[in-house]
Amino acid sequence: MEEFYSLQGEGHHTGKAAYFLRIGGCDVGCSFCDVKESWNPDLHPLVAVDDVIKHISETKADTVVVTGGEPCLYNLSYLCEQLSKQGLVRHLETSGSEPLSGQWDWICLSPKKGTRIHHEFYELCKELKVIIEEASDFAWAEENTRQIHHYCELFLQPEWSKRGKVMPLIVDYILQHPQWKISLQSHKYMRIP
User: Which domains does the chain have, with CATH numbers?
Assistant: First the structure.
């Protein structure tokens, strides 16, 4: 769908420069999605991976973040192989709704309610990021932590359009459950892509 060089705005790597690849197509369709134009893959023509690698090489990026839509709708093995050959660190942001492909240095799992999550993501993710839209989402967050079989950083992120309402809830929840951290969409505050 799009590619750009910017700063990571969310989660563990907030503030880090990275090249972003947003893959078109999504099988989840969250009501709060801030990139709904990514959902329909037919709106986004296929792009040659080798061309994308060339674009990345024209920047100072050492990290590539693959996001969506839902990037795991596609086989990402060739992309990962080519990124690895260039010595680039590979990050994946996924809902976990589709099987994993490719080799990743960092996986951020952001599971969505009502979606079947492929268990391999619970075993491999290094970051669990749960979007909080209402108070009941805390139970969903905890349900997901029970699936993880290793150390994983835990983040609660306010749904952007309801941040004023849910921020106090998240702050209080983290004070009571300090294994969690807050993730803010800092790129929106900075007005960068």
Answer: 2-190 (3.20.20.70)
